[in-house]
Alkaline shock response membrane anchor protein AmaP (Streptomyces scopuliridis), 199 residues
Amino acid sequence: MREHIKTNRVLLALVGLVLLGGGLLTIAAGAGLYRRWGLTPPAGWPLTTPQNVLTPRADQARWADQGWWWPTVIASLALLILLALTWLLSQHRRWRPRQLPVPDTPRKAVSVNDHALNGALTTDLNTLPGARRTRARISGPPTHPQALIALTLAPGITPEHVLKDVSTAVEQARQSAGWDQLPSRVRLDVARHGPHRAE
Protein backbone atom coordinates (compact mmCIF):
# COMPACT_ATOMS: atom_id res chain seq x y z
CA MET A 1 0.00 0.00 0.00
CA ARG A 2 1.32 3.42 -0.81
CA GLU A 3 2.50 5.66 2.00
CA HIS A 4 0.16 8.51 1.16
CA ILE A 5 -2.82 6.15 1.11
CA LYS A 6 -1.94 5.00 4.63
CA THR A 7 -1.54 8.59 5.78
CA ASN A 8 -4.89 9.58 4.26
CA ARG A 9 -6.68 6.70 5.91
CA VAL A 10 -5.17 7.44 9.32
CA LEU A 11 -6.04 11.15 9.09
CA LEU A 12 -9.55 10.46 7.84
CA ALA A 13 -10.06 7.89 10.62
CA LEU A 14 -8.95 10.39 13.27
CA VAL A 15 -11.17 13.16 11.87
CA GLY A 16 -14.05 10.71 11.64
CA LEU A 17 -13.61 9.59 15.24
CA VAL A 18 -13.56 13.19 16.49
CA LEU A 19 -16.68 14.08 14.51
CA LEU A 20 -18.43 10.87 15.55
CA GLY A 21 -17.64 11.46 19.23
CA GLY A 22 -18.82 15.07 19.11
CA GLY A 23 -21.98 14.06 17.28
CA LEU A 24 -22.81 11.33 19.79
CA LEU A 25 -22.28 13.71 22.71
CA THR A 26 -24.52 16.30 21.04
CA ILE A 27 -27.24 13.71 20.38
CA ALA A 28 -27.01 12.50 23.96
CA ALA A 29 -27.58 16.06 25.24
CA GLY A 30 -30.38 16.82 22.77
CA ALA A 31 -32.22 13.63 23.66
CA GLY A 32 -31.74 14.15 27.40
CA LEU A 33 -29.88 10.87 27.78
CA TYR A 34 -27.58 12.17 30.50
CA ARG A 35 -30.50 12.76 32.87
CA ARG A 36 -32.56 9.77 31.70
CA TRP A 37 -29.75 7.21 32.04
CA GLY A 38 -27.95 8.87 34.94
CA LEU A 39 -24.82 9.54 32.91
CA THR A 40 -22.19 12.14 33.72
CA PRO A 41 -21.28 14.37 30.74
CA PRO A 42 -17.61 15.15 30.01
CA ALA A 43 -16.09 17.89 32.16
CA GLY A 44 -16.54 21.29 30.55
CA TRP A 45 -18.90 19.99 27.87
CA PRO A 46 -21.46 22.81 27.23
CA LEU A 47 -24.27 20.57 25.97
CA THR A 48 -25.70 18.68 28.91
CA THR A 49 -29.47 19.21 28.55
CA PRO A 50 -31.82 19.74 25.59
CA GLN A 51 -32.13 23.44 26.56
CA ASN A 52 -28.38 24.09 26.30
CA VAL A 53 -26.71 25.52 23.21
CA LEU A 54 -23.11 25.16 22.15
CA THR A 55 -22.35 28.82 22.85
CA PRO A 56 -24.59 30.52 25.44
CA ARG A 57 -26.04 33.96 24.63
CA ALA A 58 -23.85 35.65 27.25
CA ASP A 59 -20.72 34.21 25.66
CA GLN A 60 -21.96 35.11 22.18
CA ALA A 61 -22.40 38.75 23.17
CA ARG A 62 -19.12 38.84 25.11
CA TRP A 63 -17.03 37.37 22.25
CA ALA A 64 -18.78 39.37 19.52
CA ASP A 65 -17.94 42.63 21.35
CA GLN A 66 -14.22 41.82 21.23
CA GLY A 67 -12.43 43.50 18.32
CA TRP A 68 -10.24 40.49 17.62
CA TRP A 69 -13.06 37.90 17.60
CA TRP A 70 -14.37 38.09 14.04
CA PRO A 71 -10.94 38.51 12.35
CA THR A 72 -9.73 35.46 14.28
CA VAL A 73 -12.75 33.38 13.29
CA ILE A 74 -12.47 34.38 9.63
CA ALA A 75 -8.71 33.79 9.54
CA SER A 76 -9.11 30.36 11.19
CA LEU A 77 -11.78 29.26 8.73
CA ALA A 78 -9.74 30.56 5.78
CA LEU A 79 -6.69 28.65 7.01
CA LEU A 80 -8.75 25.48 7.43
CA ILE A 81 -10.11 25.79 3.88
CA LEU A 82 -6.60 26.46 2.53
CA LEU A 83 -5.22 23.36 4.26
CA ALA A 84 -8.08 21.24 2.93
CA LEU A 85 -7.51 22.49 -0.63
CA THR A 86 -3.77 21.89 -0.35
CA TRP A 87 -4.40 18.33 0.82
CA LEU A 88 -6.87 17.74 -2.02
CA LEU A 89 -4.50 19.07 -4.68
CA SER A 90 -1.59 17.05 -3.30
CA GLN A 91 -3.63 13.87 -3.74
CA HIS A 92 -4.13 14.70 -7.41
CA ARG A 93 -0.42 15.30 -7.92
CA ARG A 94 0.56 12.08 -6.19
CA TRP A 95 -1.70 9.96 -8.34
CA ARG A 96 -0.18 11.26 -11.55
CA PRO A 97 2.69 9.17 -12.93
CA ARG A 98 6.11 10.58 -12.11
CA GLN A 99 8.65 11.17 -14.83
CA LEU A 100 12.05 9.87 -13.75
CA PRO A 101 14.93 11.45 -15.71
CA VAL A 102 17.36 9.20 -17.56
CA PRO A 103 20.93 10.45 -17.09
CA ASP A 104 23.53 10.88 -19.83
CA THR A 105 20.98 12.23 -22.29
CA PRO A 106 21.09 15.68 -23.89
CA ARG A 107 19.67 18.11 -21.33
CA LYS A 108 18.08 15.10 -19.64
CA ALA A 109 15.37 15.20 -22.29
CA VAL A 110 14.62 11.48 -21.87
CA SER A 111 12.54 10.29 -18.93
CA VAL A 112 10.77 7.10 -17.97
CA ASN A 113 7.29 6.85 -16.50
CA ASP A 114 7.47 5.29 -13.04
CA HIS A 115 4.26 3.31 -13.66
CA ALA A 116 5.79 1.79 -16.79
CA LEU A 117 8.98 0.89 -14.93
CA ASN A 118 6.97 -0.55 -12.01
CA GLY A 119 5.00 -2.71 -14.44
CA ALA A 120 8.10 -3.91 -16.28
CA LEU A 121 9.91 -4.80 -13.05
CA THR A 122 6.85 -6.56 -11.66
CA THR A 123 6.50 -8.57 -14.88
CA ASP A 124 10.13 -9.68 -14.67
CA LEU A 125 9.71 -10.68 -11.04
CA ASN A 126 6.56 -12.67 -11.79
CA THR A 127 8.57 -14.92 -14.10
CA LEU A 128 11.01 -15.92 -11.36
CA PRO A 129 10.83 -19.57 -10.34
CA GLY A 130 9.34 -19.93 -6.90
CA ALA A 131 7.62 -16.53 -6.89
CA ARG A 132 3.86 -16.59 -6.35
CA ARG A 133 2.87 -12.93 -6.09
CA THR A 134 5.14 -9.96 -6.64
CA ARG A 135 4.76 -6.20 -6.49
CA ALA A 136 7.42 -3.65 -7.34
CA ARG A 137 7.42 0.11 -6.98
CA ILE A 138 10.01 2.76 -7.67
CA SER A 139 10.08 5.21 -4.77
CA GLY A 140 12.17 8.12 -3.56
CA PRO A 141 13.17 11.38 -5.28
CA PRO A 142 13.75 11.26 -9.06
CA THR A 143 17.48 11.81 -8.55
CA HIS A 144 17.83 8.94 -6.04
CA PRO A 145 15.23 6.28 -6.92
CA GLN A 146 14.77 3.14 -4.87
CA ALA A 147 13.02 -0.14 -5.67
CA LEU A 148 10.51 -1.42 -3.11
CA ILE A 149 9.65 -5.06 -3.77
CA ALA A 150 7.13 -7.34 -2.06
CA LEU A 151 7.40 -10.99 -3.03
CA THR A 152 5.53 -14.10 -1.91
CA LEU A 153 7.46 -17.35 -2.13
CA ALA A 154 5.99 -20.72 -2.93
CA PRO A 155 6.26 -23.26 -0.09
CA GLY A 156 9.63 -24.97 0.08
CA ILE A 157 11.51 -22.31 -1.89
CA THR A 158 14.82 -21.12 -0.48
CA PRO A 159 14.96 -17.31 -0.22
CA GLU A 160 18.66 -17.24 -1.11
CA HIS A 161 18.11 -18.35 -4.71
CA VAL A 162 15.12 -16.06 -5.21
CA LEU A 163 17.03 -13.05 -3.90
CA LYS A 164 19.75 -13.65 -6.48
CA ASP A 165 17.13 -13.60 -9.23
CA VAL A 166 15.58 -10.46 -7.73
CA SER A 167 18.98 -8.76 -7.79
CA THR A 168 19.33 -9.67 -11.47
CA ALA A 169 15.88 -8.22 -12.29
CA VAL A 170 16.64 -5.00 -10.40
CA GLU A 171 19.97 -4.70 -12.19
CA GLN A 172 18.21 -5.04 -15.54
CA ALA A 173 15.77 -2.29 -14.55
CA ARG A 174 18.67 -0.07 -13.48
CA GLN A 175 20.48 -0.58 -16.76
CA SER A 176 17.32 0.01 -18.76
CA ALA A 177 16.79 3.37 -17.04
CA GLY A 178 20.47 4.29 -17.28
CA TRP A 179 20.85 4.93 -13.55
CA ASP A 180 24.15 4.57 -11.74
CA GLN A 181 22.51 2.73 -8.88
CA LEU A 182 19.08 1.48 -7.85
CA PRO A 183 18.99 0.41 -4.18
CA SER A 184 16.29 -2.12 -3.43
CA ARG A 185 14.36 -3.19 -0.36
CA VAL A 186 12.72 -6.61 -0.53
CA ARG A 187 9.97 -7.96 1.72
CA LEU A 188 9.51 -11.71 1.53
CA ASP A 189 6.41 -13.69 2.52
CA VAL A 190 5.72 -17.39 2.23
CA ALA A 191 2.49 -18.62 0.68
CA ARG A 192 0.24 -20.64 2.95
CA HIS A 193 -0.11 -24.30 2.21
CA GLY A 194 -2.17 -27.12 3.58
CA PRO A 195 -0.71 -29.68 5.98
CA HIS A 196 0.97 -32.71 4.44
CA ARG A 197 0.16 -36.15 5.77
CA ALA A 198 3.18 -38.28 6.47
CA GLU A 199 2.92 -41.95 5.54
About this structure: Helices lie at 3-30, 33-37, 57-64, 69-95, 114-126, 159-177.
